[in-house]
Amino acid sequence: MLDSVVDALVILSDPSRIAFVVLGTTIGLMIGIIPGIGGLVGLALLLPFTFNMDPYAALAFLIGISAVTVTSDTIPAVLFGVPGTVGSAATVLDGYPMARRGEAGRAFGAAFSSSVIGGLFGATVLALLIPILQPLLKFIASPELLAICILGMTMVAAVSQGAMLKGLALACFGILIASIGDESQTGELRWVYDQIYLWDGLSLIPIALGLFAVPELVDLAIGRTSVSQKGLVDKTRWQQWRGVSDTLNNLPIVFRSATIGSSLGSIPGVGAAVIDWIAYGVAAKTVKGGSESFGVGDVRGVIASESANNAKEGGALIPTLAFGVPGSASMALLLGAFMMHGINPGPNLLEENLHITYTLVFSVALANIIGAGLCFAFADKLAKVATIRSMYLVPVVLAVTVIGAFQGGRDMGDLYVLVIFSLIGWYFKRVGWPRPPLLLGFVLGDLMEGYLFISVVRYEFAWLYRPAVLILLGTAVFLTFWPALKNLWTYLVGKNSEIAVSEKIKNGMFSGQNIKSAVLSLPLFIIFIFGIYSSEQWDFEAKLMPVTACYLGLVLILLDFSRITGRIESLALNSQKQIDIVPHLYYRRALKQFLWIFFVLILVKLVGMLPALLLFVSSHMIVDGKISIGRALLISMASWFCMFGIFDYVLHIPWPDSLLGKAIVEAMGNETPYLLRRLF
In angstroms, what is the C-alpha Rg of the chain? Predict the structure, then answer.
């Protein structure tokens, strides 16, 4: 083994290969900053360019891209509340409120330092445990994977502080949304309503951006201020080192979250979104005061999320290298790269070609170190973005968000989904409902349905008695019901039971807040009823999961309405206090911002994506931001050329067809210039 390690170091020490690691790392960081693109798109676009490379250089280049995308996705998550990838969605909960307080530098320092430690931990785990985990992974089947998904779902209780029942109900709603489309086992079309777009189900990216990104941008525009409420980001470099100190002071959280990330990352099918939430939920449950402080700007939440996010990359390489089974979608592309360069993953790679394995391990470690160093170097510059006023920031970030949403399924339907879930996300944020459970339910829905079907068909009900399943489900039950039982015990045997009873009556089911909550729950209640009614004619396999989610959701809503054990509190997940302006002005400004979004969609359909975004950014700055025409045109043109250069010339992403574009092609035929085809 030592000889293989030495050989790997010699291979990777070649200057050209180090240069490719640096190049891949730099590209990965740039891709991670752009919401909705992600490392998967970067790998898919750049994989063909590695065909003529040296195999070691090619793999180092691709590993560099894949390993650090999850580092730079922190930047939009902290500055704008926009998750760069689904793996940074949990980072938004605490990172964005910190930026609002003028602590973006501290959030960056904590995120980057915990990321590099987590990434190195994952690489170390990969190096040490491949031989050990090889026999253990053979015992992980669909029942264990289903139990892991259920455990992930129970983390809803941890990320829905003050509203566990609502969080679980919204997770059921997320499962219901995930059921839309072609059911994989029976081919049953569920809730497609003759829309071809819905056959493959809804895309994750526009849903995530709609729930988290657009509501924050709308509130920024309403408040007409900068991301940082202090207006300044002073001493950012000092704040960075404070964030590093926070990481070093919370090393148990780092290593616990990194362990979760690397271990779950080694299991095929358990994606970044799941791992991120599980690590965040475990931290919220185990650290002192986490239940109250997580979600409102606790640096420990950033540390937990980012540690797991980076550590999972090393873990995902374990099944890819050991068995040729990709641990994630990105690993599937890397597997294709292995094959393209004559490297066959499997036992042979771990025995006769162990030096190749360690070359990949060291590439992961080097990429994380370089990525964190680059992020540290430019974090003070990036933190100042939080001081840019909304009139300049909102239209540009919203334009990038629209582009990112379109990349979900590369269909106009993705933009409609973005608008719908933007309204839902803004509504939930306004009334104090948790948004992460819905996203988590959507992510886990397909996985749970597939694993449940396989488990029942193969094992019938015997899968419930497998030891690992019992442990995981028992943990899930404990995490879900322990807070409720503890609160109930407090009320029943409290030191002053009379005061406790009076508080129940005062803040219980007859309170104005609970009645208001019941009214707000009515649309969700109706959706669950409709889901049960409309699925009556489906095959049993097709309706098992969505109907189960509907019935469970109904029970949870009824329990939430009838509970008398405590009052409804404003949720920690709101990430910020409501904007302090009169209600009628707030709603008027909110309506205006959503009309701007509808304006973008109309323009995209009429003239194409690129011209629409140019018109939107400039007109939004002039009309809504009251910026001078000259300055607005200068800023909008500069940002538009950047977007055009990155997305069109570098990434070569497709654009939606427009009515004007079709008219130009019909008029000019084959003689239509390439630039006109791309623009319109």
Answer: 25
d(CA 112, CA 118): 10
β partners of residue 389: 226
Q: Which helix (H) or strand (E) holds 21?
A: helix 15-33
Report which DSSP code applies to 37: T
Tens digit of each residue's pLDDT (9 = 90 or more) over 274-283: 677 778 878 8
226 - beta bridge partners? 389
Residue count of the chain, please give it: 680
CA distance 181 to 201: 4
Q: Are 172 and 374 in contact (CB under 8 A)?
A: no
Question: Does residue 431 have a pLDDT over 60?
Answer: yes
Rounded to whole angstroms, how far apart are CA atoms 655 and 644?
A: 11
Instruction: State which amino acid sits at residue 147.
Output: A
Query: Tokens 């449950």 — which residue?
Result: 285
8-state DSSP, 578: P
List phi, psi (to 5°) of 95.
Answer: -65, -45
Q: How many whole angstroms from its chain centre is CA 450? A: 21
Q: What is the pLDDT of residues 615-648, one digit of tens each?
A: 999 998 998 888 888 888 998 898 888 888 877 7
CB 662 within 8 A of CB 668: no
What are the structure tokens assigned to 504, written together? Answer: 């129940």
Looking at per-residue pLDDT, the higher value among 342 and 562 belongs to 342
For residues 364 and 123, the answer to whether their CB atoms sit within 8 Å is yes
Of 573, 557, 551, 468, the closest CA to residue 150 belongs to: 468
Q: How far apart are CA 155 and CA 450, in angstroms?
A: 20
Q: Domain locations in the chain? A: 2-572, 606-679
Angle of the 55-72 helix axis to the 2-12 helix axis, nearest 10? 80
3-state DSSP percent of the chain in helix, strand and coil, to 5: 80, 0, 20
